From TrEMBL:
UniProt-recorded name of the protein: RN213 ligase
Gene Ontology cellular-component terms listed: cytosol; membrane; nucleolus
Single Gene Ontology BP annotation: negative regulation of non-canonical Wnt signaling pathway
InterPro entries, per the entry: RNF213
Single GO molecular function: ATP hydrolysis activity
Lineage top rank: taxon: Eukaryota
Keywords carried by this UniProt record: Ligase
Length: 80
């Protein structure tokens, strides 16, 4: 949710890192953002769950990758 929210606001996601147990927004706002970005017109709960699970895995892997660390790559992969 935090990544999607910042993406919609046009923030630089290269420097953002999720802080565990941090809470932002309301459950309704979270659901609305998931519905907007999941890519399915009328998703089931299972489809929303799969979307959030996949997105979470991808973002966690991205945060742990040295190639996505702005301190390591400097500005060579800006926006990648």
């Amino acid at each position: 949710f935090q990544y999607l929210k910042r993406f919609d606001l046009g923030c630089d996601l290269d420097v953002f890192r999720y802080a565990a147990h941090s809470v932002e927004g309301s459950p309704a706002e979270c659901l609305q953002l998931f519905l907007l970005h999941c890519g399915i017109m009328d998703p089931s709960w299972a489809e929303l769950r799969n979307f959030t699970w996949f997105l979470n895995i991808q973002l966690r892997d991205c945060e742990s990758s040295v190639f996505c660390n702005p301190d390591f790559v400097q500005d060579t992969l800006k926006g990648f």
